[in-house]
Each structure stands twice: as structure tokens, then as C-alpha cells.
Amino acid sequence: MSQKHEHDRIVSLQLTARMPFLPVATHCVETAAKAFGLGRDESLKLSLATEEIFSYLSSNVCRGESVDIRCVNGLSYVRVEFRFSVSALDMGALNIAASVTCDNDDDMPEMGLAIASRTIDRLNIMAERQNRVCLAIEKDKDYPSVPETPLPPAVVKGLLTAETPDTEGVKIYVTRVNQGPPDPLRPPFFQYPGKVADMVAAGDCQIVTAVDARGECAGGVLFRFRTARIVEVFGPHVFCPAREGEIADMLLTACIARIARTKAIGIVNLTGMPLSVRGQYELLGSLKYSGDDGKSFVRSWYYRLLHEDPGYLVFTDAILKEYLEGEFKRLFLAREIRDVHDQGEIKEVASIFSTEMLREGSTAVLSPLWPGADLDDNVKRHLRFLKDEAINNIFFNLDLGIYWHASLMRVLIDNNCRPALIIPFGAQADMLIFQYDRTEP
Description:
- By secondary structure, the chain is an alpha+beta fold.
- About 30% of the residues lie in helices and about 30% in strands.
- It folds into 3 domains: about 1-140, Heat Shock Protein 90 (2-Layer Sandwich), CATH 3.30.565; about 160-295, Gcn5-related N-acetyltransferase (GNAT) (Aminopeptidase, 3-Layer(aba) Sandwich); about 310-440, 3-Layer(aba) Sandwich (Aminopeptidase), CATH 3.40.630.
- It starts with a helix and ends in a 5-residue tail after the last strand.
- The model has no long low-confidence stretch (mean pLDDT about 90).
């Protein structure tokens, strides 16, 4: 996308964190959201979240200080970023499991944050330089789902070529994926052909399809960067079973050829791939899932290095050092493992987790965003909340490149969570995934 079009996708505003400027902030966000394609309801929800967050910043966090607000058009979503300076951050009510009472007026700001966290689709908090903090919220655009009228079966003839599909080709590929066998781990965006087309246009992902001389789609693969160093691959999806090995190999070869031009070190597949190509990859590990019907199934995750592993520094609690040494040795990853110890230093008051819930797959993925002295209590609150919501599969993603994430390892183990597998280069360093063990009391 051209630099001019990039500027067309951003609206910026700088305000002083004082309540008289609240209408300016909310009007700017709501107007930008509508201009960027969000519907009326989605724009209002984003404006409401902005109202609660700006109010809290003005009253409790950085009153009278400068706040930079940036609205970004992601085509399939709108992101609002709040940047401000603060020496300590107490915004624990942003946790989806936060319990806020309204016994007196002092509780109202926290109630506002709790409302904000429930009206948006994603939340992120990043510490920047010189005590700067970026709090980002996102709201997805509403799209029609896959048409009820199915496409006729693919009739593929002759030689196949790998190509980058146009918008219509993207929608046909996504529609055919949905017409295949049900998959509880299929990402929700595959239900919306128009959304995937916008994701491709925004540069959030890429697609390669295999087509014959008549343009008939025989299969496809979608891939996106999880970080600058690791690419996540979905598929390959094959629509002509008689030629599965040929089509899957062609698609992955074309996918790798495109990735090889980038700085990516490797690729991962976290949702399953055809048996015919698994031999070209290393096994990361397997996870056991529980379906809505009570039945369990196992899904294996794979990865493949494209370039030599440069080695990284990772942090751990002593309780998991032996486990990490064994996994890094098995995966042929060079890592310097450094122990992190609590030596009585002052901690932030309230920790914050982001929670991505996929109700159709009865799955929740939690990621720590901000450290705090209440990590154990906060983990317990989230587990209790998710079990009350009948979520069967609960995961925690820890970044081994962030030192304070190591303090969560013992907390998670004490709360019946177990280290499941590692995604190389999946975060600042590697990502360690914990899974809640529902068989424990």
C-alpha cells in the first residue's frame, strides 16, 4: 500500500488529560471509526470504551498531562492507541475477570474500565521509553458470513500453478475452506470471506492458491507474521483429495519462497496440516482439547527453520529451567537461560491480562500485559471466571524474552497449569504456552 494511502488510514489527536476535553476525544474516535468503515454499533462501542479510558486517565492516571490518541484503520478493524507518561500504572479493572462493586462513587472509575474492556475485541498495553505507556484497543468490523448456497465441487484438470489470488479468488478460497469438514480449531476469520479479503489488502496476511488452466481453485494456504521472525501458516487446504500430496507440497513450496525473501527465521503450523507434508517439519508438540460435546481430541503443532537459529536470551523461574533446557535441546534451539529471582523489589499494584475468547471452540487464550503484586489472585480470578463461562480449553502465553513473565511460571503451576509447548521466536524471544489442567481439583 502506498505511503499516501497509509496516511489516509490514520487520524491523530493530542489532548490534555482533563475532563472538559472528553467530548473531543469521543467525537474524534467515533467519527474516525465510521469513516474507516465500522458500523454504527461498533463505532459507538469504540467511542464508549474511549470515553471510559480517557475519563480514567484524566481522573486517576495522568491528570493534566498530555495524551496522544491515534486512530488506525486496519480495514477489518479499527485500533485506538492512547499514549501517555506515568511512573506507576493501576488499571486492573481492564481485566475481563475484574470484579468491581458500585458501593460508592469512588468505585465508578473502575466500573468504567470494566465496561470498556467488555465492549472491545482486543486490548494491549506496551511499556515504551521514558515511562511512556501505549494502551491500545481494537474493534472488529462486522462482515456477512459465508453464503449459505455452497459452491459446486472443484473439478480440477491438468497442470496446476501457484498464484496470488485477486479479491474474488480470496473469497472463493475462504468459502471452500468453510465447505470442508468442520474444524474446531479453525480461526474465526475463515467464516467471513470479505474479512479475509480486507486482511490481505491491509497486509495482515497473504494467500497462495493452486489453480488449473481454467482458474479452478484446487487448494490454498494462508500465512501471516506472528513476529518479524516467525510466520504462522494455516493449511494447506486441499479441495481435490485425489491430488493432496501434489497440491499441498506445491502450496508450501510457494509459501516458503515468498517468506524466504523476508527476515523470518522459521514457520509454524498451529492448527494442523496434511499428513503428506508433515515429514518436512519438526514436531513442536501436541495439545489435548475438549470439545463442546465433551469429547477430547489431540492436535499436533509443527515448525520448520528456514535459516540458522541466531540464539536468544530467555528468562525463567528455577522451577522450569530443566524443562526449558530439555525442550531447547530437543528443538535444536540455542538459548542462554537466565534465572529470575524475586529479591523484594517494589511491584506494581494490579496486573493486567488480555483474554481472547473463542466460544465456538470453547477456548480462551490469556496473555500477561502488565506486572503486578496480585498475579496469583488475578490468575485465580480469571480461571474462576472462564470456568463459570463454560470454557473448556484455557491457555496462557508467556514471552520468555520479558523477564517479569518468568514470575508467572510458579504461579501458573500452583494453579494447575502445565507447560505444554514452545513456539520458537513467537514473541520478543520464544513463547511458552501453559495449559490449564481441568482434571486437577
